Amino acid sequence: MSRAFVKDGEQPFDDLPDRVIPEHPNDVTREGMAQIEAALAAAKDDFAAAQAADDRGAMASASRDLRYWSSRRATARIVPDPSDNSQVRFGSSVTIARDDGRKQTFRIVGEDEADPSRGTISHVSPLARQLFGKGVGEVVRVGAGEAEILAIG
User: Fold this and answer.
1) Residue 42 covered by a domain
2) Spacing of C-alpha 79 from chain mean position
3) Which helix (H) or strand (E) element contains residue 53?
4) Which own/partner contact pairs does 73-78 have at CB distance under 8 Å and 24+ positions apart?
5) What pTM value is reported for the model?
């Protein structure tokens, strides 16, 4: 858009950069797929509301989210919950004991559904990558320290 057609102080909303699409496989849990579908529906609703209000800024933002969630939905691959808990896999819940005495439990999930404050971590996170393929009793490097796997569920 030419700057000649933008009022002073007005943003050229057509130039919003797209959200970065992660390069890793888009593995998700069933719950993760539901979250993606809900986010896609919300983006569609937001775009329709922005169109109805003739709000160009909101339309650009909603359009960007719509492109992102459409892409994530199109590439999502639901990974079934693991049936074998002998090793850490995608979808596993893992309890670790850090060398500083803290015990933590995380479930390994897709990138878009990961929220460490709610006990989920991305399958591409350094911790998850250290845990994959390991069993109870094994020790993994976690940052500058170590952690022992106490349970896999």
Assistant:
1) yes
2) 15
3) helix 30-53
4) 73/36, 73/37, 73/40, 75/26, 76/26, 76/28, 76/32, 76/33, 76/36, 76/110, 77/25, 77/26, 77/27, 77/28, 78/28, 78/29, 78/30, 78/32, 78/33
5) 0.83
pLDDT at 12: 52
CATH number at residue 143: 3.10.50.30
Encode pLDDT of 59-98 as tens digits: 999 999 999 999 999 999 999 999 999 999 999 999 999 9
Going by DSSP bridges, is the β-strand pair 103-109/120-122 parallel, antiparallel, or unpaired? parallel
How many Cβ atoms from other residues are within 10 Å of residue 70's Cβ? 14
Domain presence at residue 85 = no
Domain of residue 112: give its range: 93-152
CA 48 to chain centre: 25
CB 58 within 8 A of CB 42: no
The sign one gets for the Cα dihedral 69, 73, 75, 79 is: positive
